[in-house]
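In the design runs reported in the main text, the only information available to the sequence generator was the tokenized backbone. The following block is the verbatim input for one such run; it is reproduced so that readers can re-run the procedure and compare outputs position by position.
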């Protein structure tokens, strides 16, 4: 598994995650230092996610037809240019443009990482390989905010953007070392003649829609926990609420490689059903959390659930998919995640303000039950389709 191509991909993703997680947390502070209002600073902080969602929805034909290596180089250069522009030009309009660039680049590269991994990894170790790549995100989330906070406090916010640009520059260098994936002649023959595609099939891979629906449900739970947990801690007076993130990062770092290995050995259903139950348990723990013990348990359970399910979804979305459809299938699944992560905070915020934190987490517990049912239904459907083909 640890081939030269995989090591280059791993280092590429690690540099991108360190760059992203170093720059993302400081956007609002940097905007305030440039004279933005609090509302405008919040808008600038979220504009990358919105532009990424638009990119994801519209980029299917582009990602499916252009060479993966060239696209990875382009997106890493886009990341790099955005960070260095923020360093060189102190202007709110430039900051807004750079955040759009970051959102577009993140949406594109996150899809192509899955597709490229599917090309270079054998199917029997694909889950483990994708899980190790997913650890890069955990490392970035753990180190990025610490680095940016230190740089901002001691050298100013521009220095943090400069450092993120250096990380992105390393990603550009590693992207140049990636080999262009080649589809074997046998796989090209299996793909058959080119088919006339509808407009919908140009933007989404129909076979990935069920796994994309699972990703929506998983994203709703993640979006709520990631964005509203600190708010709930303040409402309940839990001063140690940040322990949730410590537990989540620590357990995710330790458990993700094993989740990929278990996926390769036991399959999607046997691994993801327990993960859905862990998500359910995390929501119940947070629904009635009043102190650090419950918060730690919730963070650990959510890491074992959502944190470990994410690489399994990435591996599953390209399983049994023709190689020339890898990018489109991965983009379809990732679009589901984006939709869920957008809906989670919106629905959670409405419930939190109307009925309180307990009701919000119980709602997400119900979503976790729907997630479990969707996993079982998807696995039965997938087996039925596979048996009919054989």
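Verbatim output:
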């Amino acid at each position: 598994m640890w081939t030269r191509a995989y090591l280059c991909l791993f280092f590429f993703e690690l540099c991108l995650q360190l760059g992203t997680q170093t720059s993302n947390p400081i956007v609002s502070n940097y905007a305030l230092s440039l004279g933005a209002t609090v509302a405008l600073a919040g808008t600038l902080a979220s504009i990358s996610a919105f532009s990424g969602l638009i990119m994801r929805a519209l980029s299917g034909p582009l990602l499916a037809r252009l060479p993966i290596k060239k696209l990875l180089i382009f997106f890493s250069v886009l990341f790099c240019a955005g960070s260095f522009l923020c360093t060189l030009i102190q202007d709110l309009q430039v900051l807004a443009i750079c955040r759009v660039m970051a959102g577009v680049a993140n949406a594109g590269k996150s899809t192509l990482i899955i597709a490229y991994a599917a090309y270079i990894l054998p199917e029997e170790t694909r889950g483990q390989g994708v899980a190790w790549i997913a650890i890069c995100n955990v490392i970035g989330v753990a180190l990025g905010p610490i680095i940016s906070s230190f740089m901002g406090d001691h050298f100013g916010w521009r220095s943090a953007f400069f450092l993120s640009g250096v990380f992105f520059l390393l990603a550009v260098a590693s992207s140049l070392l990636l080999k262009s994936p080649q589809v074997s002649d046998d796989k090209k023959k299996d793909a058959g003649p080119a088919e006339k595609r509808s407009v919908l099939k140009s933007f989404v891979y129909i076979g990935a829609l069920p796994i994309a629906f699972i990703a929506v449900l998983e994203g709703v739970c993640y979006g709520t926990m990631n964005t509203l947990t600190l708010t709930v801690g303040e409402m309940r007076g839990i001063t140690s609420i940040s322990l949730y993130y410590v537990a989540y990062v620590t357990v995710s770092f330790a458990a993700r490689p094993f989740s990929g290995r278990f996926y390769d050995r036991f399959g999607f259903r046997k691994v993801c059903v327990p993960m859905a139950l862990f998500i359910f348990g995390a929501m119940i723990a947070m629904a009635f959390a009043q102190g650090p013990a419950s918060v730690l348990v919730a963070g650990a359970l959510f890491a074992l659930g959502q944190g470990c399910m994410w690489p399994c979804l990435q591996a599953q979305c390209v399983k049994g998919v023709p190689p020339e459809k890898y990018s489109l299938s991965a983009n379809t699944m990732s679009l589901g995640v984006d939709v869920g992560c957008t809906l989670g905070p919106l629905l959670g915020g409405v419930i939190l303000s109307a009925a309180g934190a307990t009701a919000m987490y119980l709602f997400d517990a119900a979503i976790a039950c729907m997630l479990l049912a969707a996993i079982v239904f998807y696995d039965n459907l997938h087996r039925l389709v596979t048996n009919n083909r054989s």
